[in-house]
Amino acid sequence: MTPSNMQDYVTILIADQLFGIPVLEVHDVLRGLKLTKIPLAPAEVAGALNLRGRIVTAIDVRKRLGLPELENDEDGMSIVVEHQGEPYSLMIDNVGEVLSLDMNELQPTPVTLDSCWKEISGGVYRLEKKLLVVLQIERLLDFAGNSTIAA
């Protein structure tokens, strides 16, 4: 293990807000998904897809964060992550670059951030022109609100 305090993040854009996901949590980046609707699923669940023989649940991150849908049926992108041994496809607007950021510069989530966003944030980085919110996948995918319960 190196003494480096650097963490690599895949940056994603959702409604002009920059988010970061630790690069080691990202399994795939997809575009042009063919989804199958899942009856009686929560609103955030957009459907399911087959990815190399595995059934992957697609989550509409805009709905999860209380944001309006993409306009003009724009073709968004998707990041595949794993949570509790299951793959999930996070439907997002766009994928950016990979940034190496110093973990010592990670700041607590601002109290002024929307409560839904605070719930899924692992802190923020103040970049030159934007605020990067670090997404905590386990909290984002915790629809029942169980993320604070100890195992």
From TrEMBL:
Pfam families: CheW. One of its GO terms (cellular component) is cytosol. Residues 6-146 form the CheW-like domain. InterPro entries: CheW, CheW-like_dom_sf, CheW-lke_dom. It comes from the Bacteria. SMART domains: CheW. GO terms for biological process: chemotaxis; signal transduction. PANTHER family: CHEMOTAXIS PROTEIN CHEW (PTHR22617:SF23), CHEMOTAXIS SENSOR HISTIDINE KINASE-RELATED (PTHR22617). This is Chemotaxis protein CheW. It comes from Sneathiella chungangensis.
